[in-house]
Amino acid sequence: xxxxxxxxxxxxxxxxxxxxxxxxxxxxxxxxxxxxxxxxxxxxxxxxxxxxxxxxxxxxxxxxxxxxxxxxxxxxxxxxxxxxxxxxxxxxxxxxxxxxxxxxxxxxxxxxxx
Amino acid sequence: xxxxxxxxxxxxxxxxxxxxxxxxxxxxxxxxxxxxxxxxxxxxxxxxxxxxxxxxxxxxxxxxxxxxxxxxxxxxxxxxxxxxxxxxxxxxxxxxxxxxxxxxxxxxxxxxxxxxxxxxxxxxxxxxxxxxxxxxxxxxxxxxxxxxxxxxxxxxxxxxxxxxxxxxxxxxxxxxxxxxxxxxxxxxxxxxxxxxxxxxxxxxxxxxxxxxxxxxxxxxxxxxxxxxxxxxxxxxxxxxxxxxxxxxxxxxxxxxxxxxxxxxxxxxxxxxxxxxxxxxxxxxxxxxxxxxxxxxxxxxxxxxxxxxxxxxxxxxxxxxxxxxxxxxxxxxxxxxxxxxxxxxxxxxxxxxxxxxxxxxxxxxxxxxxxxxxxxxxxxxxxxxxxxxxxxxxxxxxxxxxxxxxxxxxxxxxxxxxxxxxxxxxxxxxxxxxxxxxxxxxxxxxxxxxxxxxxxxxxxxxxxxxxxxxxxxxxxxxxxxxxxxxxxxxxxxxxxxxxx
Lengths: 114, 499
Fold this sequence. Notes:
The complex is a heterodimer.
Chain A: H1 3-25, H2 38-41, H3 47-54, H4 63-74, H5 78-88, E1 92-95, E2 98-101, H6 102-113
Antiparallel strand pairs in A: 1-2
Chain B: E1 3-6, E2 15-16, E3 20-23, H1 27-35, E4 43-46, H2 55-58, E5 64-66, E6 89-90, H3 95-98, H4 120-126, H5 136-142, E7 156-163, H6 175-178, H7 180-184, E8 189-193, E9 196-202, E10 209-215, E11 221-224, E12 228-231, H8 234-244, E13 268-270, E14 274-278, H9 285-288, E15 291-292, E16 298-305, H10 307-313, E17 318-326, H11 330-343, E18 351-359, E19 368-375, E20 381-386, H12 391-410, E21 414-418, H13 423-428, E22 430-432, E23 463-465, H14 479-498
Parallel strand pairs in B: 1-8, 2-11, 3-4, 3-12, 4-8, 5-20, 12-23
Antiparallel strand pairs in B: 6-7, 7-16, 9-10, 10-11, 13-22, 14-18, 14-21, 15-16, 17-18, 19-20
Helix pairs in contact in B: 1-14, 4-14
């Protein structure tokens, strides 16, 4: 094998590893198909983790209704404030046994759908 | 000096006439005898066993059961009774345990916790659980050993168990051995060992005890004619002796309303009911194990529903404890990551523990002991126990767990997963407290109770019952400390009426 080919191959492998690492560990390069709920889903720190949680919800909640409700609840205060408001008002939901603020549970369901 | 006599050596036909006969030498019987040490009463304590385990004596407990453990496997029939194998867990009952709760059928004591308050200090001393440190006292001691897990405002709070000794390999107080010398030193007391009461014989009009039939496994038979009798042989045997003593009153003594043996209960202890995640990863050691806090107090934290919330949310008593660390599955990790991020909390060091629980059952008349056709070595009918847990019992506890989960999130300290939904899941890791409760329940109305608020069997003026069989509703707290306090109250009452 020519030296030039070897260097190019090693460089390609290193580049691929770096890209894979960025994808796996930072989420920077992850791409999601556009959805009508991106304004909500961007509240999530890690959509893949939320989606894994959301997939545990049985049944098929109406995403549009849920999103509408979430937009009202999240408003300008963001997810953190909405979650705390849920907790204070005892608006809780259970996903795979986990006791969650309703807004977190609903966002997880949206993440799982999109 | 009192006499400890092996009844197997007493000639048949002997008759004793004490002021008071105590049937049973468990914690109630021993506490009662000791509480009456300063009285002028001549007391005879009749213990079926000896000083140590004897398989032949133990076998008299054998019976049949459904939904429960073998009847000769979870009791001990020798001096000290159940304290010969107890775990030493102590906690006074809560105020709401005594209340009539319209969401708990057949609940309510004829008096409140205030009636037992004067007796708790002496009971605490007898179980050797150190300084009284439940609730706020525990909080003060605990903070030196690590922070209490913050819970947001709500229905569940950190409460405390205290332990009868149990330091390293030190066992909890076994009343028979621990108090043997005290009993021997008690001048007004005689203890008959290996003496089985086989019948409580009423006078012909059925309103008072005339005498007790006593027998030994080597064939001796005696008569005891006491002025007063206290039945203190445990939550199952108390009912058995009343039921078998049916020669004068056909359904058995105190059983005119068909209540003797009904409303049996125990504290179910389902394990791994929930997973507790602490975002910061640290949990003070007293949540995970018994901790010596000084002042002789060994404490362990438990999550308890407050009285106020129990009334508001209509739940029963429960005491939830931390068991062991667990590893979360991928969904669990996703739940923690998503929720902690939403709350703005760092959960990179999060740790998880499984939770277990002691539950208070809803009183149920169909949970009961009845006489079986089989007989024991002395000819007494054996018992048949029908035990069960309703779905409602689990549902109410689930509500409490959900509230704990909400409060953990409110404080941003952690979160909780409820691991059990179906009946099979609840029953999968089910243990029992071996706390036998309720079979001679207390109520001032003879149609609703076997004994009145002074523990006197309705209609039988000189017969009383001591122990947890009189608990009309049960609490999630372990019964030993509470039944001893109740027995000390009975001792005061007997001192007054027998003087």
